[in-house]
């Protein structure tokens, strides 16, 4: 059975949101489920393999981020089932359906790991923000609220990651402060 068919499978429920709307909302949530599972395992990958003088603080930070993503996985999957839908959340389904690129396996030090994660938290944050509007337009304020909660945390975590990189991005060539603020590559 294709993931699209699985994602549109609805069980009988007494919830008062029309079935044709729930199918669309569940489709968005299952896309989020795949991306969140993917981002969680990528963040764990960073937690295990990061090297360098900032090892310990990054190892701890990445674990905290992965823990939050694990909670979002459960929240999103259980919103799917609360809507009468079928949660598509195996590792294989996540790898196939995630909007994110695979993690780079050829990086080594802390800054490279932070940049790789920031490059993935940014499109994830965009997906979550778009889902707030989409689910609100579909008349599901509760799912929109769930997305808003995730969005607030992810924006904060993107700040934490970007903050490690911003000083280098705005310093002049001779190491002095420059007012020329640069956009990171991912959002340029
Ligand atoms: Fe650990």
From TrEMBL:
Pfam short name (any one): Ferritin
Family the entry assigns: Belongs to the Dps family.
Organism: Anabaena subtropica FACHB-260
Regions crossing the membrane: none
Protein name: DNA starvation/stationary phase protection protein Dps
InterPro entries: DPS_DNA-bd, DPS_DNA-bd_CS, Ferritin-like, Ferritin-like_SF, Ferritin_DPS_dom
Domain Ferritin/DPS residues, every copy: 28-166
Stored NCBIfam families: PRK09448.1
């Amino acid at each position: 059975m294709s993931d699209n068919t699985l994602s549109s499978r609805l069980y009988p429920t007494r919830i008062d949101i029309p079935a044709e709307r729930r199918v669309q909302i569940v489709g968005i949530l299952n896309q989020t489920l795949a991306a969140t599972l993917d981002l969680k395992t990528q963040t764990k990958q960073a937690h295990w393999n990061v090297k360098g003088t900032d090892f310990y603080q990054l190892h701890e930070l990445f674990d905290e981020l992965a823990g939050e993503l694990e909670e979002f996985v459960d929240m999103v999957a259980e919103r799917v089932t609360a809507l009468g839908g079928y949660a598509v959340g195996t590792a294989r389904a996540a790898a196939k359906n995630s909007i994110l690129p695979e993690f780079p396996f050829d990086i080594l030090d802390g800054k490279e790991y932070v940049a790789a994660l920031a490059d993935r938290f940014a499109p994830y944050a965009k997906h979550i923000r778009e889902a707030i509007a989409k689910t609100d337009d579909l008349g599901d304020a509760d799912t929109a609220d769930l997305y808003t909660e995730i969005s607030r945390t992810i924006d904060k975590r993107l700040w934490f990651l970007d903050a490690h990189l911003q000083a280098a991005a705005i310093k002049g060539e001779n190491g002095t402060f420059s007012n020329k603020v640069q956009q990171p590559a991912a959002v340029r």
